[in-house]
Write a structure and sequence with these properties.
The protein is α/β, with parallel strands linked by helices. It has helices at residues 2-19, 71-83, 102-119, 134-137, 166-172, 196-221, 225-231, 239-245, 254-264, 308-311, and strands at 35-40, 46-53, 88-97, 99-101, 122-132, 144-147, 152-154, 159-161, 236-238, 250-251, 272-277, 315-319. It has ten helices and twelve strands. Strand 5, helix 4 and strand 6 (144-147) form a beta-alpha-beta unit. The chain is globular, with a radius of gyration of 23 Å. The two termini are 29 Å apart.
Length: 328
């Protein structure tokens, strides 16, 4: 009963705030400044830990009573802040993601590569449960890529997702009249089946994007022909097999990856490990999954969001669909 009254009081407060008076912010959100927090160490030099968790996208995620950044904006804002701090000598990305859209993945790849070139700071990656497709793509600029012993990675390939409702329309007697200029103007429409020519054109786009991914793998990882053949099937690999194929450099726990990252950057074992957050957490650790865009956000008691696989928009993805959440 007491909880019931608290919920009512909360919504009354929101209503009153919306109607006038000073703005009351109940939770931290993307409008708050990033602050630096130390996870461990006491040295003057620092290594920054950046989590990359979930779908890679440049679209902000809807949050309850709070503003949200997209993953792209979140990561880039942290890189910009790190670039201004000469005491940060390295950045370790903690990755747990099935991938995401092609453009968002490519933006992060470009931003990480440019950050590395401009600053000379070392970049390392520690993969946790999953680092597939677009998540592997953004890992490629790293000086050191490590995988947890149970990591699933790989899936170096492209998906074009395109819903089709032509059969349903025919069953219910519904049709769409289309006037167009240019024979391929409505290519990819969900209202009819694609022609053979349209299928060839779409496959050409998929092939071109897939070949771009493979060229970057060859540039950064330099696999031999056997490894290249295996990788190009776009299958997934466990950590040990990924190590044999040259997709990763070490099979490490996160703490081991942090230790080697410090060594790679010429830092002492006591170098400070820092994170950028908008909320301070007691007893904070490497394994805090909060990100700058979502921390401190209240989650509704009833989750009415649709599964990720059901809300993916038509488009091109560097994504392993087997890892896309169905329960969120």
């Amino acid at each position: 009963m007491q909880r019931h009254y608290l919920v009512i009081a909360l919504f009354v407060l929101i209503f009153v705030t919306a109607c006038g008076g000073p703005r009351v912010k109940l939770f931290s959100d993307a409008g708050d400044p990033l602050k630096e927090y130390t996870l461990e160490g006491k040295g003057s030099d620092k290594i920054l830990l950046i989590p990359v968790h979930g779908m890679i996208t440049d679209t902000p995620k809807e949050r309850f009573l709070a503003q949200s950044q997209s993953m792209v904006e979140n990561v880039v804002s942290q890189l910009r802040k790190a670039e201004k701090d000469d005491r940060i000598k390295a950045v370790l990305f903690e990755i747990n993601s099935p991938g995401g859209t092609i453009t968002a993945s490519d933006i992060l790849y470009h931003e990480i590569s440019s950050f590395k070139e401009r600053t000379g700071k070392k970049i390392t990656v520690s993969m946790l449960d999953i680092a597939t497709s677009g998540a592997y793509y953004v890992s490629l600029p790293a000086d050191l890529i490590t995988a947890h012993p149970t990591t699933v990675t790989g899936s170096v390939g492209v998906l074009f997702l395109q819903p089709k409702i032509a059969g349903l329309m025919e069953k219910i007697g519904f049709s769409v009249d289309v006037k167009k200029f240019g024979k391929n103007k409505d290519m990819g429409t969900p209202f009819r089946e694609s022609s053979e020519e349209e299928q060839r054109l779409l496959q050409k786009l998929v092939d071109d994007m897939g070949e771009r991914f493979m060229r970057l793998v060859q540039k950064h990882r330099k696999p031999d022909q056997h490894a290249l053949t295996e990788i190009s099937t776009a299958r997934i690999f466990l950590a040990d097999e990924a190590l044999k194929l040259g997709l990763v450099d070490k099979v490490y726990y996160l703490s081991d990856a942090m230790r080697e990252s410090k060594q790679l950057a010429g830092l002492s074992a006591d170098a400070r490990v820092v994170v950028y957050r908008r909320t301070e957490f007691p007893d904070d650790t490497y394994y805090n999954t909060s990100t700058a865009a979502s921390e401190g956000v209240n989650v509704p008691a009833v989750n009415i969001e649709l599964p990720e696989m059901l809300v993916l928009k038509t488009g091109f993805y560097y994504l392993w669909p087997g890892a896309v959440s169905v329960d969120r």
